[in-house]
Amino acid sequence: MFEVQDVRLDPASRRAWRDDREILLSRKEFDLVLALISKAGSVVTRDELMRDVWNATFWTSSKTIDVHLGWVRRKFGDDTRHPTLITTVRGQGLRFETTAPVNA
Q1: pLDDT given for residue 81 in this prediction
Q2: Is 79 part of any domain?
């Protein structure tokens, strides 16, 4: 079980919660969140995500990650313009934040 901020993710049952509310995720959405939350606080590169989540060693589309990330942010109620859970580190990748930013 991973618990970061107010998000819980159970890889064994493939279930996710924010606070006490269960979040229903597709298989790829769950895999994306798992790849990020399992390395919370660290940047995960797009190459790593394509390899680990999509089992691709080549870029099918640079939009694949962005589209799924948008769905995940909406489902978790993370503001897409000012996210506090999953942030984009320009030119590097994505990071699941261990704490919400102070100005959030």
Answers
A1: 87
A2: yes
**Which residue in 69, 37, 67, 64 sits closest to 51, CA to CA?**
64
Domain residue limits at 65: 2-96
Residue type, 25: L
Asked whether residue 104 is assigned to any structural domain, the reply reads no
Q: Is the pLDDT of residue 60 over 70?
A: no
- What 56-60 contacts at long range (C-beta under 8 Å, 24+ apart), as own/partner pairs, is none
Query: Which CATH number covers residue 24?
Result: 1.10.10.10
Selection from 22, 16, 21 nearest residue 86 by Cα: 16
**Sign of dihedral through CA atoms 55, 6, 67, 42?**
negative
